[in-house]
Amino acid sequence: MSDEEVWLIEPSGPLRGDVVVRGSKNGVSKHMVAAMLGTGESIIGNAPEVGEVGITASMLRALGITVEIDDSEIRIEQGPRIEPRVPAEYTGLNRIPILMLGPLLHLAGEAFVPLVGGDPIGRRPIDFHVAALRDMGAEVEIQEGGVYAKAKRLNGTRLELPYPSVGATETILMSAVLAEGKTVLKNAAMEPEVVELALFLQRMGARIELSPDRRIVIEGVERLHGAQTWLAGDRIEAFSYLAAGLVTGGEVRVHGCPQDRLVTAITTLARMGARFEINDEYLCATAPPEGLRAAAVQTDTHPGFMTDWQTPLMVLFTQSHGMSVLHETVFENRLVYVPALQAMGCEIEVFDQCLGGPACRYHDSNAKHSAVVRGVSQLKGADVRLPDIRAGFSAVLAAAVADGPSTLRGVHHIERGYHRPFEQFKTLGLDIQRRG
Ligand code: EPU
Fold first, then answer.
1. Where is UDP-N-acetyl-alpha-D-glucosamine annotated to bind (predicted)?
2. Minimal CA–CA distance to 389: which of 94, 187, 153?
3. Which of 114, 141, 294, 362 would you label with 243, given CA atoms 20 to 30 Å apart?
């Protein structure tokens, strides 16, 4: 018998109330890695309580870094001896080990990291990371079970990413800050989480210039020191709870996420008919009495409609009037969760063509990366297994508007990246119970 935790959800009407979002899973873990690079203590404030923090903390401890976590505050300090190998037990848990290559090269001159994991939303290659480190002078070998790298000192160089990858930009930032000389990176990712990381590194003493044309210039320095920062609220969680209010015909006030992280999301929802109240305290969206309208949305790099917003949007589409179209252009397999929603009665059809926008990188592939969604459909409760974190949250939304109870399995995916989601949903009035 499995002792896996499951959530039992009974639809219980409109979700209403207040949610405070903390720093993001995708911000906090990178800050924890960056903090390795400073001599002296770094303090990361407003950290979420998510599984990803625990995984990253134990990886760092295995490398000889001191990590103390006290609710929303994380303190990190280099230990006297750095172990250059991330243990194999961390294989496949998340995307963080690949980001440790650059920092470990600076601290130990060599590094081994197990092959990365993350959600099954695409091939998730690491070729950009490896190519950049090689261009900066590292010897990098793909070995069985991981990546080995060696370098006496990394050198600054001119780099251009084939696609503005968030992770590869972060690898380059954390490798270039202590490299010899200047690194010029073209076609960098400019997601708010990347900029937040650059600002933290700047507080640690790094010399970084951000240009408006996706160019980042980093002048390597001899050393970095510890620094203190406060993470901005998670724009994925913020959008997800706004969608939770809208899809159930309720009203969720989201505190803690700056409006400028949600510009495209707000406009997309407003085009569908959502009415917003936005002030310096919170953001809140409500559906008009006649319900939301269908839309055509294409995901993109920042400042476009982010890929992680599309899973709750998809459930919203099923409850909006008309046929909606979604074109996913960032991860080829992001629609892997659609069968779980179909099992709950969502009328979604997936296509390998680029629908609802210009041809993307997956135009000639077999990847089913576009979807047509019919609304309004009556969803039904079901017993479903969640394939990944963002899909998991969407299944909760579908269960909240379904006819009948649902059993959700694999909820650890949700807990890896959302701050206390079970408690938040309970506060909003969802009839949700834990078993297992
Ligand atoms: N890519 C390559 N080669 C590489 C790196 C990326 O081809 O070496 C491709 C990817 O396959 C993908 C595209 O570039 O098609 C974009 O990937 P990116 O590197 O930007 O994504 P990531 O860094 O792996 C982060 C977040 C994702 C978020 C994306 C886009 C973390 C840990 N993950 O992934 O978040 O969707 O950026 O904003 O920061 C999530 O939280 O659920 C999640 C998947």
1. 95, 308, 330
2. 94
3. 362
